Amino acid sequence: MRTILFLSLAALLLGSRADMTEAEEAALTDPTAECAYIPYPPVDNVVSSFPPTGTPVAAIMPNDAAGQATYDQMKANIPNIVPKGVNGTFTVNISKTYDPTDPDCWWTYSLCTTPKLAGLNPDIVAVPEPRTLGYGFDDGPNCSHNAFYDYLTSQNQKATMFFIGGNVMNHPLQAIRAVQDGHEICVHTWSHRPLTTLTNEQVFGELWYTIQLIKLVTGYTPTCWRPPTGDVDDRVRYIAQQLGLVNILWKYDADDWMVSAGEYTPAQVDANYAYLIANVSAGTFDTVGAIMLTHELDNYTMQTAVEKYPLLAAAFDVRYHIVPVGVAYNKTQPYVETNYTQPNFEQYVAARTGSGSGSSGAGGNPGSQSTSKTTGTSAGVSLWPPFAIVLALLAGSFMIWL
After folding, report:
1. N or C: which end of the chain has fewer CB within 10 A?
2. How do strand 85-86 and strand 252-253 relate by DSSP bridges?
3. Which one of 64, 104, 138, 139 is the catalytic residue?
4. Which residues on adjacent β-strands are paired with residue 125?
5. Whose CA is closest to 291, among 382, 224, 370?
6. Residues 145, 171, 183, 295: which is the catalytic one?
7. Cα(55)–Cα(61) distance, rounded to whole angstroms?
8. Does the active-site annotation cover 192?
């Protein structure tokens, strides 16, 4: 949270710096410097207009006339589905007391992805292009992601980034870099809580304020989202759909976040990647592609993504068929604004094919993105050590959740 206390502590421990451009921040190679507080007036001046970071949105913010009007337009038609918990915590034994016929199409209970209520769009769980990986990362922007993003740039690789609103608040320049690098930006809620445990107004706020902040910081309004932990039902789907968001889930899971949580070993994560790759060889994706859940959460998840990329590239048609999810769906206009386009699948693959198959050459921006970006010169991948997490937290960086 950008409180005075945290900012003062950041200045004392890590040193604050004057206003910095996105390109200057992207050129930083020291994770401690990356995660130090960097003044950014467009966000700093409106902090009070957004919810506190790190906790579920309590309600629509006072004086947010646009938010209140938008919510009022939809609230009468929100499905009458009872929340499955309170303020981010599931009701005790909810999975045992919930109707086993799954009337709510509750993903957490049954992995349901085809809504039971009429008028709701099905969730995206795969990509339509064969032998193709819909490539993306949850929980960004991570304050120390420069080495990771530099690596993606060196591979001419774009991805779908699911951003947490609180992280965008704390690391706006990192969010700008993602757009400048040509990645597709989607919503991952404000505080990363299970949405089915929240009230209607809370669900709205979790999505609405993340959309508004991404628009403020990057200039673009996202049209896609992913529920934290996949927790979604038809009530939540309705609210998200009314906000113009397409729900992107997955069928394959790296479980990479569980290593830092102490619930998984790296060997188990390796096995999850191996399982995905084995399915390519087995022909599982010969007619339809895959989406795998991975994270921009911490040093381990980003480093693992770098280490596994060559294996994925070799499996999915020599790296040309690793694409952002929107590209796989030929979604050339990923944002509400019409002054930004991304290539369709054929254009993306053609541009990457033309860039050669080497693993270390820097590639151009495939397609017709209207933004440009000057990246840093960091070579290789040298991500930050775990002890720096403590310093980053003290600096107000919000490295959260799954």
Report:
1. N
2. unpaired
3. 138
4. none
5. 224
6. 295
7. 14
8. no
Q: In the chain, what are the helix, strand and coil shares in percent, each to the nearest 5?
A: 40, 10, 50
Q: How far apart are CA 120 and CA 200, in angstroms?
A: 17
Nearest to 214 by CA among 191, 193, 190: 190
CA distance 397 to 392: 5
Q: What separation, in Å, do the N-terminal and C-terminal C-alpha atoms of the chain show? A: 18
Q: What is the pTM of this model?
A: 0.85
Q: Map tokens 């694409």 to a residue.
A: 323
Instruction: Return the closest-CA partner of residue 350 out of 213, 156, 204.
Output: 156
Positions of the chain with pLDDT lower than 70, given as ranges: 1-18, 318-319, 355-402
DSSP H or E stretch at residue 9: helix 4-13
135-191 pLDDT, tens digit per residue, is: 999 999 999 999 999 999 999 999 999 999 999 999 999 999 999 999 999 999 999
138 belongs to the catalytic site = yes
**Alpha helices in 282-387, H assignment, sequence order:** 299-315, 325-328, 345-354
> In this structure, which topology does domain 4-122+157-243+388-394 adopt according to CATH?
TIM Barrel (3.20.20)
